[in-house]
């Protein structure tokens, strides 16, 4: 199962962690993993390369984490809330394969 945790401070999304594999189908043809990975990488690349915000990004097999300082996170709300909306929709469609939580800090 893919586990997604969004961190939120004062109603501002400050980052996310995505870990695990969905096991929806075999590796290489798993549409759930592909959808989540693609959305996460697009978000991280937009924040780091297009918006040029100061953040920490960690990516490894089956894991991606992104963390922004609060003042930088405020500028990235449109893209972070877009990711949250997208992953929430995937979670509703593939509830057995994705677990999404929001952690207030």
Residue fraction in strands? 25-35%
Q: Averaged pLDDT, please?
A: 97
CATH superfamily, please?
Cysteine protease Prp
Total number of domains: 1
Q: Order of SSEs, N→C? A: EEHEEHHE
Distance between the termini: 24 Å
Strand order of the largest sheet: 3-4-2-1-5
Shape descriptor reads globular
Largest sheet: 5 strands, mixed
Helix content: 40-55%
The radius of gyration computed from the alpha-carbon positions, rounded to a whole number of angstroms, is 13 Å
CATH third-tier fold name: Alpha-Beta Plaits
Q: What top-tier CATH class fits best?
A: Alpha Beta
CATH architecture: 2-Layer Sandwich
- Please identify the structural class as seen in this structure: alpha+beta
Q: Spans of 5+ residues with little confidence (pLDDT < 50)?
A: none
Q: How many helical stretches?
A: 3
Q: How many strand elements?
A: 5
Describe this structure in words.
Strands 3-4-2-1-5 form a five-stranded mixed β-sheet. By secondary structure, the chain is α+β, with helices and mostly antiparallel strands. The mean pLDDT is 97. The longest helix is centred in the middle third of the chain and has 20 residues, at 31-50. It is built from three helices and five strands. Helix 1 (31-50) runs antiparallel to helix 3 (77-93). A hairpin with a 2-residue loop joins strand 1 and strand 2. It has a single domain (2-104), classed as Alpha-Beta Plaits. Helices cover 41% and strands 31% of the residues. The protein has helices spanning 31-50, 70-75, 77-93, and strands spanning 2-9, 12-19, 56-60, 63-67, 98-104.
């Amino acid at each position: 199962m893919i586990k997604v945790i969004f961190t939120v401070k004062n109603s501002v999304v400050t980052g996310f962690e995505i870990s695990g594999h969905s096991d929806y189908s075999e590796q290489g043809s798993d549409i759930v993993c592909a959808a989540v990975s693609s959305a996460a990488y697009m978000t991280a690349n937009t924040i780091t390369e297009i918006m040029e915000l100061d953040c920490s990004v960690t990516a490894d097999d089956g894991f991606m984490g992104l963390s922004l300082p609060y003042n930088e996170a405020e500028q990235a709300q449109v893209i972070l809330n877009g990711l949250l909306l997208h992953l929430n929709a995937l979670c509703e469609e593939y509830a057995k394969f994705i677990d999404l939580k929001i952690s207030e800090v």
